[in-house]
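Schema walk-through. Below, the input block comes first and the output block second. Nothing else is stored per chain. Lengths vary across the set, and this one has 843 residues.
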Amino acid sequence: MTTPAGRGEDATARLRADVNAHGDAQVYVAGENQYISITQEAPAPAPVTALRTLPRDVASFTGRQVEVDQILTGARPSRVVAIHTIDGMPGAGKTALAVHAARQLTDQYPDGQLFVRLNAHTPGHRPVDPADALAALLLSLGIDPRSIPDGLEARAGLWRDRLTGRRVLLVLDDAVDHAQVEPLLPGSEGCLVLVTSRHRLTALDGAAPLPLGILPAQDASLLFTRLAHRKPTTVSESEALRRIVELCGFLPLAIALLAGRFAHHSHWNLTDYAEELAAAQDRLGELAAGDRAVEAAFDMSYRALPHDRQRLFRCLGLHFGPDTDAYATAALGDIPLTSARRELEALYLDHLIDSPATGRYRLHDLIRTYARTLTDTHDPADEREQATQRLMDYYQHTAETADPHLTDTPRPAPRPVGTSPAAVPSLTSHQQALTWMRVERGNLTACIHHATAIAQHSRAIRLTAALAAFLRLQGPWDEAIALHQSAATSARLTGDRLAQAAALRELGEVRYMTGNLPVTADLLNQALGLSRALGDRLGEAGARWTLGRVRYLTGDYPAATALLQQALDLYRALGDRLGEAGALRGLGHVRYATGDYPAAADLLKRALDLYRILGDRHGEANALWELGQVQYATGDYPAASLAQRALDLYRSLGNRLGEAGALWTLGRVRYLTGDHPAAADLLQQALELSRTLGDRHCEANALQDLGRLQTATGDYPAAADRLRRSLTLFRELGDVQGEAEVLNSTGALLAASATPDEALAVYRQALRLARQVHSALDEARALEGTARCYARIGSHSTALATLRRAVADYQRLGAAEASAAAEYLATLEAHTPTDPQAQNSTG
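--- output ---
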């Protein structure tokens, strides 16, 4: 806002009238907070000059080195006036930064360093009229008051003229807008202007913007200790200090206020002080010292807003999530989308909200507290309730719109939300849905927690269900477990048995992915019992399908086959082709594990065709990945292209779980084809991603293959470590087939690095487990390893008999190992005398 130029003309006219009538007058110099007397009858006084009016630098100035360097770099001599606008929220330390940087530049601007307060947000003062500011500046240059012209333009012209050829640094503090600043700017080269404002002065041409955010945590702690004149002496005090500056929102003004209070109480300690602040009901009230209250600083910005913008600002204090966008804001404020966009940007320009990314806005913690305080005192309870209900309706509606694009699990269509939002984003593709879910994840979980807290259990249950597919794909699974557990509890407490069964199924799915198979089986059996009792055939099919996968991992292949076949029959009876494709894929995986590769390939190809017909790219990626596993098991290594296609699909879909599995498969193929560097890179990526997600099965598999790779390259200590960790994981998971496989790999390591007897003992363990779970491929590998150990210790006939059994199994399976094992058998047969007593040995 700019006061009309006439105010400056009127001030000069009044000054001259007073001189004529009374013989003297006083002129207030804004930059100096003083009056200069002028006497008519006496001779004109000597010009008064005040060319060095910078405030003192703050001794405790901390951090902001990047910003200081930016100003210092921009202060190099140039042919234009250098202008920097330092903008930020109240209390961010804009003035302190400007003065600190200016003090370091005094030598470069020897003709003057002037500081002008423009009072945009000074309690008890109106913003300075630029004409009055120019009068003060001209006086500071020594201009006779009687020579100061009337009018803004004339004064600005004289100001620019007097600065010609001078190197002057001008700090314009707390500006309203560009219109207040523009007339005060020098017109010639060699000058530097630093402008501070709570507003982003986007209309000030040629200015270099320098937005000032909160302090980094380390600098915030250092600022507190400097002002408090005390440092933490224990770990608990260091933690308390971190908590204090966090509660201050890392805002310099807030930190300075609390540190100043702490400095005057030598008997206080940091731990108690942190607890007191955390427990304070009125945190803003705690952040006050005289006229420097943080709340008062916020008040000045808030009161300058138009009425409708004030209302929206208060509404934003009701938002329970970390940030917002125009759609959520439109729902919250019950305003059109275009108005929401315009008002958010206006609040951003005023530094009452921040914008961490394009289209995203958030309130600083202290400003959020301030906004909530305002809405509690200004808005009736029913209006606040309606606003939060509109917001939750928006998130629920949009989440349930996004979910069908992400899930590969059959589920009933949700009932419509009570009130449909007026404006929602377009989510018509997988990528749009995934992007929205990623961005809004924090808001959605906050919405669930808020709904639970106010006993809106149905809403919390539905929102959790809408997030289920996304959480399975993205993790972290501990968060998913907590949400599904809460949903199951809410459903049980409210008597919604159908919702309880669905939540237990989702919880079982996540437990399955974390490898806790006993708990998974218990949850799914509960869900299955509820679904059957309720006649929920779709829910029953889903529970049987996941139980089948659990039985597969524990090596109970007959039970796995029965459960998956029952699921397949149910899905077909319901006409649910997505469920049918999933059941076919599950059956294919079991056939693969039992060594029936042709049947496995047939089932997986049928599943792949169905997924493609349905346009389900997640299912297509899963089927491609598993089909690739079948094909490379038979030695068809070019089939790695299927795993690569699966990896590309997973990445395009944002399916990090699938990505980890495909990376592991590709790494295994590269190892088998002798490309060890590529294998190491792929397997390490799979290992890191699976650990990030909490996918312990993929982690165990990646560790095992890294161990096999290190065995092949002769790094035996590293190989032993990887295989030991893999074995521990498989045992914790109850995956007997995985345990047998890693024991075979350990046997190969011992055969290469230790003695045949040590390797033989491990191979025998692998053989026992492989037979226990009917894993024909692992049994053949254990037999081959055993035969090689017998050959090395001189039991050639036993080695022959055992190896013949292994080769026969490999050939029956069509396994990739058949050729190399047959060649080794031929070599043994050519160099081993016949021993009739060992012909029937099987190791």
